[in-house]
Amino acid sequence: MTQLPALTSSQMDAEIAALARAFKAANGPVMSMLNRLGGSMEGQLALLPGPLLAQIDRVTESALLAAHGLASVGARAPDVGPRGTLAAVMATGAAGGAGGLPSAIAELPVTITLLLHAIRREAQKAGFDPDTPAIRAACLQVFAAGAPVAADDGLNTAFLSARLTVTGPALHKVIATIAPRLATAMGQKLVAQAIPILGAVSGAALNAAYLGYYREMARIRFALMTMAEHHGAEPVMTAFRTACTPPRIVQA
């Protein structure tokens, strides 16, 4: 990791406040897009047949494993920049939605791989080596990010360490934990892509929204990891959670 000067207490407070604001605002574009495409996707997702939901879970977990294995190969490819990645995920989403659910499910592994590459780029921007075991795990953990901040939101103190040792079994446990969350997010996308032709428009728009969301989650995570290197994971995470928690209204 690139060594940066340690922040003063006031600088850290200001940085954490800015990250908390970004965290709370990050899922706005995704939710706006889902609402425009048909209201509560979670309710519609629950109406899908059980075997199809199980298939989405399996495809998502397999895609995470495959994307994790291919990540270092993709790192050697030319950097196409933010717009290139955006064009790629939109094209993939459009292709997946063009044929309804069957093609949308087939598209999932490609989309997840593109999203993971974008996350790895954010790690590099923050000065981390995305090929080290701890940072590779942290990149995957971005997919577990949720809002508002909760005890299981994926931003736990353990994964704020750039020196964490991640063994094979531990990595599989990380993926097994992340996969259900990501499957739910991807399942909502599949519902929006279920109608052929119209699904192509939905798929392109949602892929763009998800790319923006996970990129921002990655930027926030790696900024927190940088601060944790200097100030400790527990104080940084505590301050971040506090900044993300709405103030309590006390009635007179």
With helices defined by DSSP (H or I, 4 residues minimum), what is the helix count?
Answer: 10
Rg value = 18 Å
Shape assignment: globular
Q: Give the helices and strands as they follow along the chain.
A: HHHHHHHHHH
Structural class: mainly alpha
Range of helix content? over 70%
N- and C-termini, Cα separation:
50 Å
| Number of spatially distinct domains | 1
- Please tell me the overall pLDDT: 80
Give a quick account of the main beta sheet: strands, pairing sense, barrel closure: none
Percent of residues in beta strands:
under 5%
The total of beta strands comes to 0
Features:
252 residues
Explained architecture:
By secondary structure, the protein is an all-alpha fold. It has one domain (20-243). It has helices at residues 9-25, 28-36, 41-46, 50-75, 81-98, 101-125, 133-141, 168-192, 198-231, 233-244. α6 (101-125) crosses α7 (133-141), α6 runs parallel beside α9 (198-231) and α9 crosses α10. The radius of gyration is 18 Å and the shape is globular.
